[in-house]
């Protein structure tokens, strides 16, 4: 399973998943309700301070947003063009703070613990026909196959590069989609053959 958990003994590591996930929801809501650049800067600094509290490094924080720098650059350019520099800085900084906050939760909480917490939290929906165990299975499978899909995409790109087709979106997307659907069918058959009845 994909698990970004970074082992530690800090207060945030020892805290139960439910309060951390609740704090994440409240923090994300406040970030989106806030429309002040100074407050957004303060919130970002606070989140980075929590990384130190958790015994994490700035490098680990940087690694959470580095893959998204091109998205930040695109958002910044568009917002600057249409709405000005201040709003552009506010939008990008707010997004960065939200990603850092979510990453802080995943770095200090095991994926299995988060899934168990979400499964328990959904029990109140049982009368409406929702099966918490199936939701937990779906979440765990989604987390497990994020790196698998990334590996499939990389393999297809390398294969198409050898054919000179690495720049073709269709030449990459179609094989990835076909392999993903086949993998989903295989997993479904495996679960069914084992008589899984959550």
How is this structure best described in words?
The protein is mainly α. It has helices spanning 11-14, 17-33, 37-53, 58-65, 69-83, 85-107, 111-121, 132-162, 169-193. Helix 2 packs antiparallel against helix 6. It starts with 10 loop residues before the first helix and ends in a 5-residue tail after the last helix. The model has no long low-confidence stretch (mean pLDDT 85).
Secondary-structure topology with pairs:
Blueprint: H1 11-14, H2 17-33, H3 37-53, H4 58-65, H5 69-83, H6 85-107, H7 111-121, H8 132-162, H9 169-193
Helix pairs in contact: 2-6, 3-6, 5-6, 7-8, 8-9
Shape: globular
Rg, Cα atoms, Å: 20 Å
Order of helices and strands: HHHHHHHHH
Report the biggest beta sheet as strand number plus sense, adding barrel if it closes: none
Number of extended strands? 0
């Amino acid at each position: 399973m994909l698990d970004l958990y970074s082992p530690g003994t800090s207060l945030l590591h020892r805290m139960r998943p439910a309060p951390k996930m609740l704090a994440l929801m409240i923090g994300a809501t406040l970030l989106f309700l806030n429309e002040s650049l100074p407050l957004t800067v303060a919130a970002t600094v606070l989140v980075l301070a929590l990384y130190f509290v958790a015994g994490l490094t700035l490098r680990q924080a940087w690694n959470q947003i580095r893959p998204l720098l091109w998205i930040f650059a695109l958002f910044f350019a568009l917002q600057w063009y249409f709405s000005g520099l201040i709003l552009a800085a506010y939008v990008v900084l707010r997004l960065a703070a939200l990603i850092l906050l979510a990453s802080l939760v995943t770095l200090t909480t095991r994926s299995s613990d988060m899934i168990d917490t979400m499964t328990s939290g959904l029990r109140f929906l049982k009368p409406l026909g929702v099966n918490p165990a199936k939701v937990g299975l779906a979440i765990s499978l989604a987390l497990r196959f994020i790196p698998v899909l990334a590996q499939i995409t990389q393999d297809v790109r390398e294969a198409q590069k050898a054919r000179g087709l690495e720049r073709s979106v269709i030449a990459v997307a179609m094989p990835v989609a076909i392999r993903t659907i086949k993998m989903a069918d295989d997993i479904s058959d495996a679960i069914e053959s084992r008589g899984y009845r959550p």
